[in-house]
Amino acid sequence: MSLIDVENLRKSYGETEVLKGIDLAVPQGEVLALIGRSGSGKSTFLRCLNGLEQINSGRVRILGEDLHYSAAGLRKMRQQIGMIFQQFELFPHLTAGRNVMLAQQVVKGIPRDEAEQVAREMLSKVGLAERFDAYPRNLSGGQQQRVAIARALAMSPKALLCDEITSALDPELVQEVLGVVRALATSGMTLIMVTHEMRFAREVCERVAFMHQGRIHEIGAPDELFEAPKTPELKQLLGHLPAAS
Ligand SMILES: Nc1ncnc2c1ncn2[C@@H]1O[C@H](COP(=O)(O)OP(=O)(O)OP(=O)(O)O)[C@@H](O)[C@H]1O
Question: pTM for the whole thing?
Fold first, then answer.
């Protein structure tokens, strides 16, 4: 059974259909990159996978169970599927440690002591053991993003969805975050990553899906897609073809 199973997913905003029938099965442990031009629907797709957006038709199943949009359904799903965003989304008035503790306490009802222990463990995993008491404003962007990763990991998710998690970072900070993601990939975490880091996608991901106009236009092993793109749209994105005028 796949960890995440998507069948004919459609999503519209008003009259505009943004996702036009997506099928995708992600087995446990897979590292999948989603690439595509701005506006092709990558973020919307990720948001549909963890219930931040409600789909119009089709199915999203997590470990064989349909995603339910009730409060209880969403709570259950969020313990299985974590998400990390471009803008970190940390609470500025809470320390790194408290940021990592909070969701465990609120969503999982874990007692404070235990949540703190997990938070320390997870911060240490992302190389920030010493920054438990630091506030986000005193951390670099790369450190803040690593806190966000620790916060997601503290929920013991079965998969992590990463939405352009290095796009807001200064170039010199990108690698420290990608290094953490690489270690997670090696440890067997299921990852779906929207990314513009083509080199990283190529080195770390097992499959790459190219989204174009709300559909998965091509999908396959990175070598296949990057070396021998089949469609003109992907060739263009990869710079194999000049942009159409
Ligand atoms: N909440 C919303 N309401 C209306 N339209 C939306 C909403 N969110 C996204 N869209 C539209 O849906 C389309 C797909 O957007 P989406 O953000 O999923 O694309 P993307 O491939 O992730 O692009 P980017 O790389 O720029 O984030 C765009 O045309 C966008 O304007």
Answer: 0.93
